[in-house]
Specification:
single chain, 32% helix, 6-stranded parallel sheet, 7-stranded parallel sheet, 20% strand, 15 strands, alpha/beta
Length: 387
């Protein structure tokens, strides 16, 4: 096929992803995304009170105000903030401002589980407003004052949102997915706020433009340092090391996530661990009842969960400890390892904890993750000394 066809929906020009049907070109990349209904943009100025049981820190309030000022000036913002800094809280001010201005607002994240968690938080924070969640299997209501949705669901909204907040920009499946990126811009009719603890070089380069702004936050909201991972290596006895580490956490009555690189390994490691410690379970993307398993873990029914990267982001558990098994696997780049480490110490009444990397060898990604965490902690230490 010799064609210069460009998909009007996702911008695809790859010949291998373009087909012909009834004499017309079509795009195979985005064929599954079809707009079945026109969603009316019925926004008008509304009251938008914020209900929080705590106040923002000085650093959070400063960034929140800067985001609002950028938005007023037509500047897109990247919030480059460490795990546990309170990115959701930082975004509340701009959400409130946009709703009060009569604008449609989206809060998008790549993963369904995080959408559910965010929705449950935001509907109590903006309790006077219509907050809806839109994700696969939950699309009966697709319009509201604040729409919390997966990035896949943005295809429904053509030039609809005056403000899109996109968190976890470096997470699968949004990361390196050109179709989803184009759907993001197709849904946008205004300006955006991107948020990440580990933005890649391409994103940082994009935000060097004159109408772009990078706002950094290297401190967690409770001003405790990020947990620095400990590396334990052995070419033969990694499972023995895993048992010993898990045993100590369970003796101390601390909940544990054990991360594994693949679904198959997740299930195999769980089958091994339950021979010694039966009060656990596993979760991965193919578990239909994973929300129930996660809730049972939270309420203490399970002592530990063996998991894939499905729980790498968006889940907060008090006093959580983390083990990354086979941390030398190629799927674990430094950004993923930092995000996983960021699950620990997220509660103000339990701000510390342990992260353990178990592997057959030490990789550059593992050492890079540790170095970046130490750099963020150094910024915190210097700031506290100045004060």
């Amino acid at each position: 096929m010799n064609t210069k066809y460009k998909c009007p929906f996702c911008g695809n020009t790859e010949i291998n992803s373009i087909g012909i049907r009834n004499g017309h070109y079509y795009c195979r990349k985005c064929i599954s995304f079809k707009i079945s209904e026109h969603i009316k943009n019925d926004a008008y100025p509304k009251r938008a009170n914020i209900f929080l049981e705590y106040s923002l820190s000085d650093e959070q309030k400063k960034l929140s105000d800067q985001i609002i000022e950028n938005y007023k000036r037509g500047i897109d913002t990247l919030v480059y903030a460490v795990c546990g800094s309170g990115k959701t809280e930082i975004s509340l001010g701009i959400i409130q401002y946009a709703i009060q201005c009569g604008e449609k607002v989206a809060f998008a994240v790549p993963r369904r589980d995080v959408v559910i968690e965010l929705y449950n938080r935001l509907k109590t924070i903006f309790r006077f407003n219509k907050v809806v969640a839109v994700y696969g299997g939950n699309t009966s209501v697709v319009n509201g004052d604040l729409i919390v949705l997966t990035t896949h669901q943005l295809y429904r909204y053509k030039k609809f949102f005056s403000l899109i907040i996109l968190d976890e920009i470096d997470a699968f499946p949004f990361k390196n997915n050109e179709v989803l990126k184009q759907m993001f811009f197709n849904a946008l009719d205004g300006h955006y706020v991107l948020m990440s603890a580990t933005p890649n070089k391409d994103v940082l380069e994009l935000f060097k433009g004159k109408d772009k702004s990078i706002l950094r936050l290297d401190t967690r909201f409770h001003r405790h340092p990020l947990p620095v991972p400990e590396i334990k290596t052995n070419r033969v006895f990694t499972l023995v090391i895993l048992l010993k580490c898990l045993r100590q956490f369970l003796i101390d009555r601390k909940p544990v996530f054990v991360f594994c690189p693949t679904i198959n390994e997740c299930e195999n490691v769980y089958r091994f661990l339950k021979l010694f410690y039966p009060h656990g379970n596993y979760v991965h993307s193919k578990c239909i009842d994973r929300n129930e398993r996660i809730n049972n873990f939270r309420n203490g029914t399970f002592d530990y969960l063996v998991t894939t990267s499905v729980l790498e982001r968006g889940v907060t558990v008090k006093n959580l400890q983390v083990i990354v098994f086979d941390s030398d696997n190629k799927i674990y780049d430094s950004g993923v390892l930092i995000q996983i480490a960021g699950r620990v110490g997220r509660k103000i009444d339990a701000p510390d904890g342990q992260v353990i990397f178990i592997s057959k060898k030490v990789t550059k990604e593992m050492t890079d993750a540790i170095e970046k965490i130490r750099e963020s902690n150094k910024v915190l230490q210097d700031m506290l000394q100045e004060n």
